[in-house]
Structure prediction request, 355 residues.
Amino acid sequence: MSDADQPFVQEYALDRDCTTLSRHVLQQLHSFSAEAQDLSAIMNRIALAAKLIARRLSRAGLMEGVLGFTGGVNVQGESVKKMDVYANEVFISVFKQSGLVCRMASEEMEDPYYIPENCPIGRYTLLYDPIDGSSNVDINLNVGSIFAIRQQEGSDEDGTASDLLQNGRKQIAAGYVVYGPSTMLVYSIGTGVHAFVLDPSLGEFILASENIRVPDHGPIYSVNEGNFWQWEESIRNYIRYVHRHEGYTARYGGALVGDIHRILFQGGVFLYPGTVKKPEGKLRLLYESAPLAFLLEQAGGRASAGTQDILDVVPKALHARTPLIIGSKDDVSLVESFIKEQSREQTANRQPSAV
Ligand code: P6P
Prediction:
């Protein structure tokens, strides 16, 4: 590198190190309006929550009271990990006294949590899964946090949060944090998908990838094949197809965020289908599937519940579940083609045969 290049490289390096999350939001919005500043500040608070969670995860094996179960069961009927509780409280703490978020809906709380001191000013709701994939925490494998931001519509005086029971196109921002070899925050405010890496030496998330595009097709299919015999025949037919055709490879980490992160960068499809016993599937709509669907659509991918886009699904309840087929648009469409084929066959079988 010639001496002449030195200043440019240094300037670029400095500018890159200054491209923090809050600055990037304002750049993306090309605005310093009150709404832009709000969104920038909210993202900054989410980044703080991520840093606090990452710090605890990095020392979990050395500290008392971090790993293992609390002995309680959450609204989902799932055993609660100590890390689930800690992470949930971190998100609440970083938004108190923020004047930003009035209401918080979490996988770990049956009802939304209100922050009254924020409500006259902050009209935003944060929907989040504080630690996704917590079964991985005790074995030091990647876990994640998932978040979505919506405007609060109406006063919600009855506390039913009924305005949250709207489809995912009401989201104004969404993203996830993946706690892996590095901690990465991936987000979108509707202007593309962008990834930041936590630089521990700065204590800041620094821009790493801008305008990420998921490939139209990829080799990965990510699904828990242990559920094979619980699926509809259409999903079993899709799995038989990828087993019998070259160019596919299975990757399943048991933690949604890590599996989605792989597909965002390498292409392919993640599936958590419904089963005959639980047609609604396992994953939650409002704070898992809808935020990830927002991101993948922003990256040129797709997310389907099987017969409709995830972003068009209207939840009947705060903790509603949905089947999820998400990733490269060609691969999501291929899965849907097997579902459509089964539907056609079922319809044909119901037709009275011509005599
Ligand atoms: P299964 C983790 O518990 C989670 O909610 C997601 O992170 C993950 O994709 C899924 O459940 C794994 O579920 O039934 O394959 O263990």
Notes: The domain at 17-209 is CATH 3.30.540.10 (Fructose-1,6-Bisphosphatase; Chain A, domain 1). The CA atoms of residues 274 and 294 lie 21 Å apart. Residues 132-133, 135, 224, 254-256, 282 surround 6-O-phosphono-alpha-D-fructofuranose (CB under 6 Å).
